Amino acid sequence: MAVNILLSVVAGIVLQATFSISLLIYVLFAVVAIGLSFWERRFLYMLFVVLSAVNLALQVPGKMEYGARDLTFSGIVVGEDQYEHFAKLRIHIDNVCSSRDTIDHRCPVDYYTFKRDVFLGKRLTIKGRIRPSRYAHRPNMLSGTVVSTSVPKHVLGTVFQPVRNYVDVLLQRSFKNEQYSIASGLTLGGSGRLDKELRDVFSRAGILHILAVSGLHVGFVALFLGLLLLFVPIDGRLKFVLIILGLFVYAGVTGFRPSVCRATLMACLFGLARVLQRNVGHNHILNITAIAFLVASPSLFFDVGAQLSFAAVYGILYLYPKIDVLLSKKVRNHYLKLVLRTMSVSFSAQLFVAPLLVFYFQRVPVYAVLSNLLVVPIAALIIFLLFICFLAGTCCTAIFNVITLPVSMLINVLIMLSRFFAGMPGSSVPVIISPLFIMPLYVLVWRRARRWFAWIMMALLAVHSIAFSVECLNVCVANDGILLTTPYDETVLITGKRTAVLQYFVERQGRKEVDYLVAPERNVAVKKGYVQTPGKLQFRNISLGDLQIRVSNHVSLRFRDVDIECDDESLQLAGEGAVVYMVTNGREKEVLHASANLSIIDRMVLDVRLIIARLRLLL
Questions:
Q1: For the chain, which ranges sit under pLDDT 50?
Q2: What are the residue ranges spanned by the domains of the chain?
Q3: DSSP states of 415-484 as a string?
Q4: What is the CATH number of domain 71-152?
Q5: Looking at residue 570, what is its pLDDT?
Q6: Which of 187, 538, 602, 616 is 20 to 30 Å from 424 at the Cα level?
Q7: How do residues 265-297 score in pLDDT, each as one tens digit?
Q8: What is the DSSP letter of 577?
Q9: Are 147 and 126 in contact (CB under 8 A)?
């Protein structure tokens, strides 16, 4: 039953994200579903679909007319992601101040800063502007200058912030450069602190996931708390409550990352079942956890960390028992069986996250199972020793200094192994494919749906082939540049920027290289030709079949009978972090809006909308 409810909730979230149906229609559907449920209980699942869609619709970020002038926003930092050169903060704004009065206005926002500090739990006062989000699962974006910083009398400020600051200062004092980035990622989470080269090495080696705090870290915290309370003469139920409180504190210190919250909630449910002496299956607890997450925050369905975390655990719970039964029958050697079981756990998780990794990293790490066999035990030992360091640092500096030496050596071994596997021939296979053809692979999990898999794939291929049989020009207008795809599948990138981010922009659009580049510098892989961007008083005319391109202070396009002006107004419409897609067959034009950084669900929705747009042009 939990599986059916979970699928219904997911269906409702995808429905609302794709079509943005009005609440009035959902109310009518809910009334019909309630009426039909008296006749047949299966219609309750339709009610779950409707209610989850309504839940996502109601959680659209609050919109407010801020005007053209800057205002002063005040809020508490509830999430923090550190990157190589900047930090991304999730702030819960609670009031807005103008020169005359203060307005109680609550909304979550994302704020980017280049300042290095521990922000979690602090109250920031920022003078700037908010750009309202276009999407239900995307927070508003705040840009401006930090006016003041303070630590409020709040659980985030009085508990989580001091602990996070203590851990960060201890790591900075003990490790330098790469070692600090890896140690911080292993304990606090996040691979963003790594420089681009090392992050790419970890990705090609298939071990980037060890820097995402998950069940392994939560297990160590529970183990430490259990050992500390082992000889304390109190009731076992009280020990369970104290351990859960400790896990809650750790979740807060890591910024309530979805993977940590998932593991914490599962640990709470497992412990509760043990205390109440109930026999509950692991899959059932995971399904209940997923339902609780989606009910509390439907936007987590679009979060990359939540997707990878749940996919890995589902893979282990579904596939590993089947492999273990096979190993018990076929393998007799005890030590070989132990090694194979360890590899099968990694293989099970890797197989279920592979479709997501193909989309987000556009590559498949070939030696991931083998590298994880060596790296995961070392990473686990590092985490174990680091937690001992944190405890020792509070009372005995000598023990702390002794432990940091083997930790440094183990981190160097970790880096060495990652470079070894990343440097092996064929360490990763580049794959660029639409998620419409990736996500249906999860249908194979359900035995009843397997016979429908071939029909689903054939239907997708048929619709996709019909839609892309139309000779259309695709125009992608973003803040980084303009990417054109001709009816003959030739790509043209036009940009006035010189940054290396352009290659990332091209890859996010499903390309490794472009056919033609019009730019100040050659920062993107080019297959056929490069044209240097002219100066302000110059222009260039480029002809590619039916497509005429004029590049001056802005870009003008003419495809058959349709003219497209990619001027400052179009770029302003796209804005930072947004993309405008235009599809034209030379007679009519379809315009779509999307975010620049898409999750796999967002990309599926966008691909569906692009296919619908092409079918409209066909009809």
A1: 136, 537, 574-575
A2: 2-58, 71-152, 164-302+369-430, 432-466, 468-618
A3: HHHHHHHHHSTT-EEE----GGGTGGGGGGGSHHHHHHHHHHHHHHHHHHHHHTTS--EEEEEESS-EEE
A4: 2.40.50
A5: 55
A6: 187
A7: 888 888 888 877 777 788 888 899 999 988 888
A8: T
A9: yes
